[in-house]
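Predict the 3D structure for this chain.
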Amino acid sequence: MVITAAVTAVPDGSAPASVVDLAGRVARSCLARARVSASSIGVLVNVGVYREHNTFEPAMAALVQKEVGINLDYIADPDPAAGFSFDLMNGACGVLNAVQVGHALLETGSTERVLITAADVHPGGDADRDTGYPYADLAGAFLLERSADPGAGFGPVRHYTADLPTDVEGYLDTDAMGRHGRAAITVRREPGHGERLREFAARAVTDYAEETGVDLDRTLVIGPSAAQAEGGGEPHTAAPVLGYLRAMDGVRRDDYDQLLFVTVGAGPSAACAVYRPEGW
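Done. Predicted structure below.
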Protein backbone atom coordinates (compact mmCIF):
# COMPACT_ATOMS: atom_id res chain seq x y z
CA MET A 1 0.00 0.00 0.00
CA VAL A 2 1.48 3.31 -1.10
CA ILE A 3 0.80 7.00 -0.68
CA THR A 4 -0.51 8.15 -4.05
CA ALA A 5 -0.86 11.79 -3.00
CA ALA A 6 -0.33 13.91 0.11
CA VAL A 7 -1.48 17.47 0.80
CA THR A 8 -1.58 19.92 3.72
CA ALA A 9 -3.52 23.17 4.15
CA VAL A 10 -3.98 25.99 6.63
CA PRO A 11 -6.99 28.31 6.98
CA ASP A 12 -7.06 31.18 4.50
CA GLY A 13 -7.97 33.69 7.21
CA SER A 14 -11.16 34.88 5.53
CA ALA A 15 -13.34 33.32 8.25
CA PRO A 16 -12.96 31.37 11.50
CA ALA A 17 -11.30 28.01 10.85
CA SER A 18 -13.59 25.03 10.27
CA VAL A 19 -12.57 21.37 10.42
CA VAL A 20 -15.06 20.37 7.73
CA ASP A 21 -13.95 23.14 5.38
CA LEU A 22 -10.24 22.53 5.98
CA ALA A 23 -10.45 18.73 5.75
CA GLY A 24 -12.64 19.03 2.66
CA ARG A 25 -10.12 21.34 1.04
CA VAL A 26 -7.14 19.01 1.56
CA ALA A 27 -9.23 16.04 0.45
CA ARG A 28 -10.17 17.71 -2.82
CA SER A 29 -6.58 18.85 -3.39
CA CYS A 30 -5.33 15.34 -2.70
CA LEU A 31 -7.72 13.85 -5.26
CA ALA A 32 -6.78 16.51 -7.79
CA ARG A 33 -3.08 15.81 -7.30
CA ALA A 34 -3.68 12.09 -7.86
CA ARG A 35 -5.99 12.86 -10.80
CA VAL A 36 -8.81 10.69 -9.49
CA SER A 37 -12.46 11.49 -8.90
CA ALA A 38 -14.30 11.60 -5.60
CA SER A 39 -16.46 8.71 -6.83
CA SER A 40 -13.37 6.45 -6.86
CA ILE A 41 -12.93 6.69 -3.08
CA GLY A 42 -14.42 3.76 -1.22
CA VAL A 43 -13.49 4.71 2.36
CA LEU A 44 -12.73 8.00 4.10
CA VAL A 45 -11.09 7.91 7.54
CA ASN A 46 -10.97 11.15 9.51
CA VAL A 47 -8.55 11.34 12.45
CA GLY A 48 -8.72 14.99 13.58
CA VAL A 49 -9.31 15.73 17.26
CA TYR A 50 -9.89 19.46 17.85
CA ARG A 51 -12.91 21.07 16.15
CA GLU A 52 -14.70 24.41 16.05
CA HIS A 53 -17.29 24.84 18.82
CA ASN A 54 -16.02 21.58 20.43
CA THR A 55 -18.35 19.60 18.15
CA PHE A 56 -18.48 15.87 18.92
CA GLU A 57 -21.50 14.67 16.95
CA PRO A 58 -22.22 13.77 14.25
CA ALA A 59 -19.01 12.14 13.05
CA MET A 60 -16.86 14.72 11.29
CA ALA A 61 -16.01 12.11 8.64
CA ALA A 62 -19.60 12.09 7.39
CA LEU A 63 -19.58 15.88 7.05
CA VAL A 64 -16.22 15.80 5.25
CA GLN A 65 -17.53 13.09 2.94
CA LYS A 66 -20.50 15.31 2.07
CA GLU A 67 -18.22 18.34 1.61
CA VAL A 68 -16.05 16.43 -0.88
CA GLY A 69 -19.01 14.68 -2.55
CA ILE A 70 -17.75 11.13 -2.11
CA ASN A 71 -20.45 8.69 -3.32
CA LEU A 72 -23.31 9.99 -1.23
CA ASP A 73 -26.11 7.85 -2.62
CA TYR A 74 -26.33 4.15 -3.41
CA ILE A 75 -28.85 4.82 -6.21
CA ALA A 76 -27.20 7.88 -7.75
CA ASP A 77 -23.69 6.42 -7.42
CA PRO A 78 -24.13 2.65 -7.86
CA ASP A 79 -20.61 2.14 -9.16
CA PRO A 80 -18.50 1.40 -7.22
CA ALA A 81 -20.91 1.99 -4.29
CA ALA A 82 -21.85 4.63 -1.79
CA GLY A 83 -18.78 5.69 0.14
CA PHE A 84 -18.15 4.68 3.73
CA SER A 85 -16.66 7.12 6.24
CA PHE A 86 -15.86 7.11 9.94
CA ASP A 87 -13.86 8.98 12.60
CA LEU A 88 -10.87 7.30 14.21
CA MET A 89 -9.60 9.33 17.15
CA ASN A 90 -6.27 8.50 18.75
CA GLY A 91 -4.61 11.88 18.95
CA ALA A 92 -1.17 12.24 17.42
CA CYS A 93 -1.09 8.53 16.46
CA GLY A 94 -4.35 8.71 14.50
CA VAL A 95 -2.84 8.82 11.01
CA LEU A 96 -0.82 5.63 11.55
CA ASN A 97 -3.89 3.94 13.07
CA ALA A 98 -5.75 4.87 9.89
CA VAL A 99 -2.87 3.52 7.77
CA GLN A 100 -3.22 0.20 9.57
CA VAL A 101 -6.98 0.12 8.95
CA GLY A 102 -6.48 1.20 5.34
CA HIS A 103 -4.03 -1.63 4.75
CA ALA A 104 -6.57 -4.17 5.98
CA LEU A 105 -9.30 -2.72 3.75
CA LEU A 106 -7.11 -2.69 0.65
CA GLU A 107 -5.71 -6.13 1.39
CA THR A 108 -9.18 -7.67 1.53
CA GLY A 109 -10.32 -5.86 -1.60
CA SER A 110 -13.02 -3.96 0.28
CA THR A 111 -12.04 -0.83 -1.62
CA GLU A 112 -9.57 0.37 -4.22
CA ARG A 113 -8.67 3.66 -2.51
CA VAL A 114 -8.63 4.92 1.08
CA LEU A 115 -8.52 8.65 1.87
CA ILE A 116 -7.23 9.77 5.28
CA THR A 117 -7.95 13.29 6.50
CA ALA A 118 -6.42 14.85 9.61
CA ALA A 119 -7.61 18.34 10.54
CA ASP A 120 -7.42 20.22 13.83
CA VAL A 121 -8.71 23.72 14.52
CA HIS A 122 -9.09 25.67 17.74
CA PRO A 123 -12.67 25.56 19.07
CA GLY A 124 -12.78 29.33 18.72
CA GLY A 125 -11.70 29.19 15.08
CA ASP A 126 -8.27 30.80 15.46
CA ALA A 127 -5.44 29.09 17.34
CA ASP A 128 -3.24 32.19 17.23
CA ARG A 129 -5.57 34.01 19.62
CA ASP A 130 -5.09 31.48 22.43
CA THR A 131 -1.55 31.58 23.83
CA GLY A 132 -2.22 28.55 26.02
CA TYR A 133 -3.20 26.34 23.09
CA PRO A 134 -0.13 24.64 21.57
CA TYR A 135 -1.42 23.27 18.26
CA ALA A 136 -1.71 24.82 14.83
CA ASP A 137 -4.87 25.09 12.77
CA LEU A 138 -3.73 22.58 10.16
CA ALA A 139 -5.07 19.81 7.93
CA GLY A 140 -3.39 17.01 6.01
CA ALA A 141 -4.52 14.17 3.76
CA PHE A 142 -3.08 10.90 2.46
CA LEU A 143 -4.54 8.97 -0.48
CA LEU A 144 -3.66 5.26 -0.21
CA GLU A 145 -3.77 2.61 -2.95
CA ARG A 146 -2.35 -0.82 -3.68
CA SER A 147 0.93 -0.84 -5.60
CA ALA A 148 2.18 -3.18 -8.29
CA ASP A 149 5.71 -2.73 -6.91
CA PRO A 150 6.23 -5.53 -4.34
CA GLY A 151 9.08 -3.63 -2.69
CA ALA A 152 7.14 -0.41 -2.17
CA GLY A 153 4.66 0.68 0.44
CA PHE A 154 4.08 0.45 4.16
CA GLY A 155 5.50 -2.21 6.40
CA PRO A 156 3.80 -3.28 9.63
CA VAL A 157 2.38 -0.66 11.98
CA ARG A 158 3.40 -1.21 15.59
CA HIS A 159 1.94 0.44 18.69
CA TYR A 160 3.72 1.04 21.99
CA THR A 161 2.51 2.22 25.39
CA ALA A 162 4.52 3.42 28.37
CA ASP A 163 3.78 2.46 31.95
CA LEU A 164 3.62 6.12 32.94
CA PRO A 165 0.80 8.49 33.85
CA THR A 166 -0.25 10.71 30.98
CA ASP A 167 1.11 14.23 31.27
CA VAL A 168 -0.72 15.82 28.37
CA GLU A 169 -4.48 16.07 27.88
CA GLY A 170 -7.03 18.34 26.24
CA TYR A 171 -10.44 18.86 27.82
CA LEU A 172 -13.32 21.27 28.26
CA ASP A 173 -13.23 22.76 31.76
CA THR A 174 -16.95 22.89 32.51
CA ASP A 175 -16.38 24.70 35.84
CA ALA A 176 -14.66 27.62 34.11
CA MET A 177 -16.17 27.60 30.62
CA GLY A 178 -18.87 30.22 31.14
CA ARG A 179 -21.01 31.33 28.22
CA HIS A 180 -18.07 31.14 25.80
CA GLY A 181 -17.24 27.54 26.61
CA ARG A 182 -17.87 26.21 23.11
CA ALA A 183 -15.05 28.46 21.87
CA ALA A 184 -12.54 27.37 24.52
CA ILE A 185 -10.40 24.34 25.30
CA THR A 186 -7.86 23.53 28.01
CA VAL A 187 -4.67 21.69 27.04
CA ARG A 188 -2.66 20.58 30.07
CA ARG A 189 0.94 19.54 29.59
CA GLU A 190 3.26 18.90 32.52
CA PRO A 191 6.71 20.55 32.52
CA GLY A 192 9.24 18.43 30.65
CA HIS A 193 6.59 16.41 28.84
CA GLY A 194 8.19 17.16 25.45
CA GLU A 195 11.50 15.62 26.43
CA ARG A 196 9.75 12.59 27.94
CA LEU A 197 7.76 12.02 24.76
CA ARG A 198 10.89 12.36 22.61
CA GLU A 199 12.67 9.77 24.77
CA PHE A 200 9.67 7.46 24.49
CA ALA A 201 9.56 7.95 20.72
CA ALA A 202 13.28 7.09 20.49
CA ARG A 203 12.69 3.86 22.45
CA ALA A 204 9.77 3.00 20.17
CA VAL A 205 11.97 3.48 17.09
CA THR A 206 14.69 1.25 18.57
CA ASP A 207 12.17 -1.46 19.47
CA TYR A 208 10.56 -1.25 16.03
CA ALA A 209 13.90 -1.55 14.26
CA GLU A 210 14.80 -4.63 16.32
CA GLU A 211 11.39 -6.25 15.71
CA THR A 212 11.28 -5.64 11.95
CA GLY A 213 14.97 -5.65 11.01
CA VAL A 214 15.00 -2.03 9.77
CA ASP A 215 18.50 -0.62 9.22
CA LEU A 216 18.31 2.77 10.92
CA ASP A 217 21.54 3.90 9.22
CA ARG A 218 19.69 3.72 5.90
CA THR A 219 16.36 5.05 7.19
CA LEU A 220 15.04 8.60 7.31
CA VAL A 221 12.95 8.99 10.46
CA ILE A 222 9.92 11.27 10.24
CA GLY A 223 9.30 12.01 13.89
CA PRO A 224 6.71 13.97 15.87
CA SER A 225 8.89 17.09 15.72
CA ALA A 226 9.77 16.72 12.03
CA ALA A 227 8.08 19.91 10.92
CA GLN A 228 6.64 23.14 12.28
CA ALA A 229 3.33 24.28 10.90
CA GLU A 230 3.02 27.52 8.99
CA GLY A 231 2.17 30.51 11.15
CA GLY A 232 3.45 28.91 14.37
CA GLY A 233 1.94 26.27 16.58
CA GLU A 234 2.69 22.57 16.59
CA PRO A 235 1.18 20.20 14.04
CA HIS A 236 -1.00 17.63 15.79
CA THR A 237 -2.83 14.86 13.95
CA ALA A 238 -1.61 16.14 10.55
CA ALA A 239 2.06 16.03 11.63
CA PRO A 240 2.89 12.80 9.71
CA VAL A 241 1.55 14.28 6.48
CA LEU A 242 3.48 17.52 6.91
CA GLY A 243 6.64 15.64 7.89
CA TYR A 244 6.32 13.31 4.89
CA LEU A 245 5.92 16.17 2.41
CA ARG A 246 8.91 18.06 3.77
CA ALA A 247 11.03 14.91 3.88
CA MET A 248 10.21 14.03 0.28
CA ASP A 249 10.94 17.58 -0.79
CA GLY A 250 14.45 17.54 0.63
CA VAL A 251 15.57 13.90 0.75
CA ARG A 252 18.43 12.55 -1.35
CA ARG A 253 17.20 9.10 -2.29
CA ASP A 254 20.72 7.71 -2.61
CA ASP A 255 21.17 8.30 1.12
CA TYR A 256 18.19 6.26 2.33
CA ASP A 257 16.43 2.99 1.57
CA GLN A 258 13.16 3.85 3.30
CA LEU A 259 11.31 6.22 5.61
CA LEU A 260 10.13 5.52 9.14
CA PHE A 261 7.07 7.29 10.51
CA VAL A 262 6.97 7.65 14.30
CA THR A 263 4.19 9.38 16.21
CA VAL A 264 3.84 9.87 19.95
CA GLY A 265 1.19 11.48 22.11
CA ALA A 266 -1.09 11.23 25.10
CA GLY A 267 -1.20 7.92 26.87
CA PRO A 268 1.73 7.99 26.55
CA SER A 269 1.43 6.03 23.31
CA ALA A 270 3.52 5.77 20.18
CA ALA A 271 3.21 4.21 16.75
CA CYS A 272 5.80 3.36 14.10
CA ALA A 273 5.57 2.27 10.46
CA VAL A 274 8.28 1.86 7.85
CA TYR A 275 7.52 3.12 4.35
CA ARG A 276 9.26 2.78 1.00
CA PRO A 277 8.02 5.07 -1.79
CA GLU A 278 7.55 3.67 -5.27
CA GLY A 279 10.68 3.92 -7.38
CA TRP A 280 13.11 3.69 -4.44
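The mean pLDDT is 89.
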